[in-house]
Structures
1.
Amino acid sequence: MFTSFSTALSALNADSTAIDVVGNNLANLNSTGFKSSTVTFSDLVTQSLGAGLGQTQVGFGTATPLTQMEFTQGAIQTSAGVLDSAIQGDGFFVVQNPSGNTYYTRNGAFQTDTGGNLMTNTGDYVQGWTALNADGTVDTNGPVGDIVVPVGALNPPVATTTMDASLNLDSSAAIGATSAFSVPITVYDSLGTSHTLTVNFQKTAANSWSYGVTIPGADVTAGTTGTPYDTGADGTLTFDSNGNLTSPTSGSPITISIPGLTDGATDMSITWSVYNSSAAGMITQYGESSASSATTQNGTPAAQLDQVGIGNGGTVLAQYSDGSEVVVGQIAMASIRDPDTLITTGNDNYELSAATANPSVGVPGTGGRGTIQGGSLEASNVDIATEFTNLIVYQRAYEANAHVVTTADQLSQDTINLIH
């Protein structure tokens, strides 16, 4: 009879622990990337009563319950943060605290500090790669480290080296000055200064047009302010009876040389392509008014950094004021075969235990790792209905075992009273 006290007390302790676990799960219902824990009960060794071993067995209660984290997928929710990231599938973000300790987390609510370091909202440094290969892609073959993004940096200018124009020249235009037609094209030098080239056309004969390219005289040292400067890129365009360009021939682009820029930039050499990649002429001569439909060139001015964001796949993108996007980093992901052996350290972080297999760190979406969705966060995987059900069960179990204690107490009092 008296063992019923310890048996019931073990149950009270176990139910109290289980209620603590449920309370912690419910408390983190809205914690990003939180993983709920479940409770497992087990009985203690039993005692055999009487001469026949095993005929009458009475247990000693329940052991301290074991807890296990459930790394099931949480719901992926779209967020407003450009640096927010969510893992779809297996894997963890790798982070380091300021002391250099490595942790693993599913919380992708990231931000940057004044130095451009990509960090969690609790101050840990997100690990990945920022070194670039010669072709501008991120080198993911090296060791991981802190991801440092450009802060307030200018994207250097790119000098124009190619240009083209899609246009039609009016086949019904009269020969001479009345047929003159011009197309302006803005290009950029090595310092990012813009220059407006003007391509001038004039009909010289049936199916034949002259062309010439000028630049404002103030833009070159050999020019005169207010007077267009001839770049020397002059020639003749000829067309067949169907209005298709025949000369220059395909594969013979026009070269425009611009030396002595007044801003001190490198001399420019621009290739003007009059045929597209399919060898079709980009300039036609039909019986419609002379008009340009599109112009393109590959130069860009210097651009101010607008913002840094994370795209799908974990790429870190820098967006500049000219609308261009440049990949400046790649977030690493760790694959851990037995995540239930991890030890929680708070702040949504986990660390390795002695029983945890070595994590495999690599690029998301490879080697069995999950993928990263930018502009999203993974919600907690706590199921409120399940937790409330468990709470009721543990409450009833606690109350039942409390009755065992009071009953055992009453019986012990009755036994003592027998002496009197």
2.
Amino acid sequence: MIKTENDIFILAIESSCDDTSGAVLHNRAVLSNVVANQEIHKQYGGVVPELAGRDHQKNILPVVDAALKKANVDLTQINAIAFTRGPGLLGSLLVGASFAKSLAQSLGVPLIEVNHMQAHVLAHFIEGKNGDPGFPFLCLTVSGGHTQLIKVNDHLSFELLGETLDDAAGEAYDKAAKILGLPYPGGPLIDKFAKEGNPQAYKFPISNMPGFSYSFSGIKTAFLYFIQNETKKDPGFVEKNKADICASYQLSITEMLLKKLRQAAQQQGIKTLALAGGVSANSLLRKSLTDMEKEGFRVFIPPFEYCTDNAAMIGIAGYFKYLKKDFADLNITPTAQYSL
């Protein structure tokens, strides 16, 4: 690709958990977004941090190379390297950070550190979607490790209104799936079975936390006791009622998530709502939020490819930081905990 004076090419790297991803962005347009998944964790029923770090080391070079080739962009055209600094698994983050720093130094281009959670939100500004949210807007960010309610005032100005005080919504899905005997990752499977079930079949408790805080530990415990009690009475209970169980559990979590979002929208006087994070791929959550358009809300939901961890979202965050010349020093280190 021929580069002109106003072109900005960002090479982005994401390695916060168990997906190694590389992307190339031309301004706000994604030219490539390559993701290598790690299958090894399925046999353990969850991500094993040490194994994740090892696989990142194996995957990162071929993934970045594939991203550059798919984008038809040469390293000499790259203006900056963006990488995930945190939050995430420290071993995984170290692989991406070390690779990004070495490459930026060798190319003589700026290094841009990105907050993973901010990047999920900024995926809404990737070119080619159906318009961008106007500022301010509220974003419900839901993933396996985080559940946050964020007021977004600008591309680089975020206000955390509330978050989970214990488990994340994605973890609540995966733990319930494990109780049901479903393989990891279980969240998408619960969504799949729920489509065939009756969401009113069973009732699970919805937490009532102060402010805009969330809690999912209670519904996880209630779900465990419910399954244990029912299987004592009928060992075949789960297999006979799997669709109804999944549909009922999914409805409870969705109602919990949107209850706080609705309250925040009313308090803040904001009519623009957005969804982000891996759990934003959940079909009921997407439909339920979209249905709020009937109440006068403007709703923005990212394409499926930008819901789960990917480097394109790191790249768009890097693009906005590049415009502000917000660059990182080469001695910067990743951090497992990284607040907004």
3.
Amino acid sequence: MKQPLLIVTLFLGLCSMAYAQEEENTLSLSLEEARQYAVQHNKTLQNASLDVQIAEANRWQTISTMLPQVSASYDYSNMCGYEMEMMGMKIAMPPYGTLGMTASVALTGAQIVGLQMQKIALNMSEISLKKNEQDIRSSVTTIYMSILAMESTVDLLDQNLENLKKLHEMTAKAVTIGVAEQTSADQLLVQVATMETSINSTKRSLEMLYNSLILQLGCKVNTKLVLTDKVDNLLNVEETMNLLNTQFDLENNYNYQLLNKNLELSKKQVLAEEVAFAPTISAFYQYSNKHYFSDEKTMDMTPPNVVGASVSIPLWKSWQRMSNIKEAKISYNKTANTLETSKDGLLVQDKQLRYNLTSAYETYQTQESNLDVTKRVFENISIKFEHGAASSMEVTNASTNLVAAQSSYINAMLQLITAKVELEVLLNK
């Protein structure tokens, strides 16, 4: 009795471990939870965050060059009993040690402008981080909604398949008793096989979407995702169309902000070339304490404290500096032109995306009505076929039209979602 009991216990333990492992690899997420998860775990976004830290570190490196630099040293010297003779007198050179400390500071125009440029670079990194977060959130939204729409497609196709199978079974029975032709049953059987193929193809596409969402979320590859939201709850048409009432603010767009910062950086580059003519100011303090390891008298000419300052002015370096300034000004003008062109492009994009949203909404309404009508037509023909008032060809055509209408409706839904997300990104909503 002990051996079977032990086997059952081990089996139950293994089943429990397998169930716990499955639970651990399952991730249930609503749309907002999926966005937040991606923001926290997406590797691309993590790299963007690291870029901000690198920009901050570079800024402090520039600041450190403007702060006093302090160094300390200790030297030991031994002349091995040598005596220096001066004016008939011998001066002992005993061994000694020197403790030295030096503090210096140098300030140039290039350091000041460089610090300003590092600040702009830091701001650009922060804006890029926000833009990457926005892109990740919009990408997760699009994929999440696409999965829900694709799952709705599978449900619709499953319903169609079930209806076709029922019609085929009924027709096969009618053939058996001699009230229907075999060709009618064969046509419906082909329609059933075609529907099964469409379902399998849709499920493979659905699997690809799940894989894409896993990559965006930054979770493990073997994670099983469970989407808890429903497409009908997320597709708020009224809220979507209210986006058309939102004014486009260029200053609120991350792309425009980056272009503006790039223009500022280009302008500072011109200033950095101009300050090459500015003087360099430096100062230092040096402390020296010499200790002799002997009682012999000797002459010490090293002052314990030394203070100094200098001003260095660049006078002539051919035409290189002037050429650098000219080149920097040309680059600034190019950047300014790019900003104006991009500004016009964003304004045109705003108009185009609003047109796309309006067009997608109209298409969605049309396809929604078309799906309703096509579904009622298929149901009507199916009833007529059951009573012998419609042919199998009419059922096949009605089924094909229904599948096409369902596909068009799902595509219209996805186009509406895509148009909404694209406009939200532009408006930074």
